[in-house]
């Protein structure tokens, strides 16, 4: 029976209604909902619901008996119940309201409602806010008088007598009179709590070759032309001119020679000279950046790599010198210096050289004591304090910190480890990486001493490493050769000139001695 009622109700409710769309719906076009067997909640007038006349077209259901303490729901939102008697979901009869339905009964405290169904009264237009008065212009503040000069602090009274139980012999006689603030502050460099200090200056150095006084480039070009004219070459004249002029003056001589005679001075000398004497003369006539670039190129060209030359150049040059050499390498050989290093080296040694070739060492940083302590602890933990070695940590610190800052790191490392950092590197590393790290440490400690050691080993024993000897003598002749000579004498008990005289000969020896300042 229930199923049949469902079907009847579904079939009787057609949509859309025959009268078409629109609101409010016309009751004649909708089927009247069947009388429910269940009681629904009709609107309760006593609680503010619709008046009984509002449902004059819909059969009303018998209400449930009101539960004590619970008012029956009222208001339009509760007067659209579904009918569940025949399990059909009938649309609420509230849709059949007529426009002339009675208005809601007036509620206490609320304004009266209109009598036209659901239409709400329009809100009255709100008056605009009155224009606010502008703030009066504030008077400008009068110029403040400058503070009068403060007098110095008066003499403080003596400290009150210490109470019983205080430490003996710990009383102060009086507070000292306050003086200049800066005089009262201790230097940050002298305390453990200091963080930064002024940028230190590297020790002053001197070269053995300086600008020649009364320099006459045209006359020098003419004299060199005469020295090569005819049969043979006047090597003495070549040594006298090339060995006593600065590199900048030599470049001027090259220019004047080409202007006066239409020839390249370097090529002319190469055709007249030979051996190590020729190599030294050509090196002296080459600009410093191009000389470094050529030395780097020859150290990697062909079979094998001269790692010691790479270390010497990249570990001892300034940022400016490294960047200049890298640019010259690109200009002369149409190759990238970093790519050549990547292809010719490997491992952590390659990483060290790539870091150095960037030319980005922090040369102008102020000394930072706290950072030096942290770096020393990091190096100790990366080496001696662990099984194996964290080479990357050494690389980061040694390739980045300025040489004065590294000297602070070395001091702190000695306090932690009770041994020097170079001794730790000797025991923790090997091969080219060890040589590179040691070169940085030695240069940071004493660069002239490092070059003195390199010169000593180039001439010690059988044979001579002329390539290294020429490179150092030429590249340092205008920078720190005076200090290199002094360090050589103090380290090995003999002068550099005596070593050169014993190990070299001929015009080659004479030119080296001229560069050496002898």
From TrEMBL:
Record keyword Ligase present: no
Please list where the region (Disordered) is annotated. 106-216
**Which Pfam family is an annotated match for this chain, by its short name?**
Annexin
What are this entry's molecular-function GO terms? calcium ion binding; calcium-dependent phospholipid binding; phosphatidylserine binding
Record keywords: Annexin, Calcium, Calcium/phospholipid-binding, Repeat
Bias (Polar residues) ranges: 106-118
Q: What is this protein called?
A: Annexin
Which species is this record about? Answer: Hydra vulgaris (Hydra)
């Amino acid at each position: 029976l229930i199923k049949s009622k469902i079907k009847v109700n579904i079939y009787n409710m057609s949509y859309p209604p025959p009268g078409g769309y629109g609101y409010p719906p016309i009751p004649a076009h909708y089927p009247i909902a069947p009388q429910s067997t269940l009681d629904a909640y009709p609107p309760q007038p006593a609680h503010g619901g619709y008046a009984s006349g509002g449902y004059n077209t819909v059969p009303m259901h018998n209400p449930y008996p009101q539960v004590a303490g619970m008012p029956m729901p009222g208001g339009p939102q509760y007067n659209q119940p579904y009918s569940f008697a025949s399990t059909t979901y009938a649309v609420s009869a509230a849709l059949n309201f007529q426009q002339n339905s009675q208005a809601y009964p007036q509620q206490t405290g609320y304004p009266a409602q209109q009598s036209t169904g659901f239409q709400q009264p329009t809100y009255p237009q709100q008056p605009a806010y009155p224009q606010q008065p502008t703030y009066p212009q504030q008077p400008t503040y009068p110029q403040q008088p400058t503070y009068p000069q403060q007098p110095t602090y008066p003499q403080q009274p003596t400290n009150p007598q210490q109470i019983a139980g205080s430490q003996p012999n710990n009383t102060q006689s009086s507070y000292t009179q306050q003086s200049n603030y800066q005089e009262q502050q201790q230097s940050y460099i002298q305390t453990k709590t200091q963080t930064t200090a002024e940028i230190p200056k590297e020790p002053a150095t001197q070269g053995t070759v300086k600008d020649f006084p009364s320099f006459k480039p045209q006359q020098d070009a003419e004299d060199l032309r005469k020295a090569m004219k005819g049969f043979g070459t006047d090597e003495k004249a070549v040594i006298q001119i090339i060995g006593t002029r600065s590199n900048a003056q030599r470049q001027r001589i090259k220019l004047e020679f080409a202007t006066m005679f239409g020839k390249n001075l370097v090529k002319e000398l190469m055709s007249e000279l030979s051996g190590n004497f020729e190599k030294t003369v050509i090196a002296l006539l080459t600009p410093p950046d191009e000389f470094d670039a050529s030395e780097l190129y020859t150290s990697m060209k062909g079979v094998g790599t001269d790692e010691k030359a790479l270390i010497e150049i990249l570990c001892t040059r300034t940022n400016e010198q490294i960047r200049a050499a890298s640019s010259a390498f690109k200009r002369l050989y149409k190759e990238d210096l970093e790519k050549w290093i990547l292809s010719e080296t490997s491992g952590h040694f390659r990483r060290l050289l790539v870091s150095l070739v960037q030319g980005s060492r922090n040369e102008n940083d102020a000394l930072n004591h706290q950072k030096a302590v942290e770096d020393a602890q990091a190096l100790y933990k990366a080496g001696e304090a662990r099984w194996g070695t964290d080479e990357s940590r050494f690389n980061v610190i040694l390739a980045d910190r300025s040489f004065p800052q590294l000297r602070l790191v070395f001091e702190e490392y000695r306090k932690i480890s009770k041994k020097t950092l170079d001794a730790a590197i000797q025991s923790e590393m090997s091969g080219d990486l060890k040589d590179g790290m040691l070169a940085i440490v030695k240069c940071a400690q004493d660069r002239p001493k490092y070059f003195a050691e390199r010169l000593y080993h180039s001439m010690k024993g059988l044979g001579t490493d002329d390539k290294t000897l020429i490179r150092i003598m030429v590249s340092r002749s205008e920078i720190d050769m005076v200090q290199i000579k002094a360090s050589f004498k103090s380290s090995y008990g003999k002068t550099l000139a005596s070593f050169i005289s014993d190990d070299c000969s001929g015009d080659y020896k004479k030119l080296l001695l001229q560069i050496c300042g002898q």
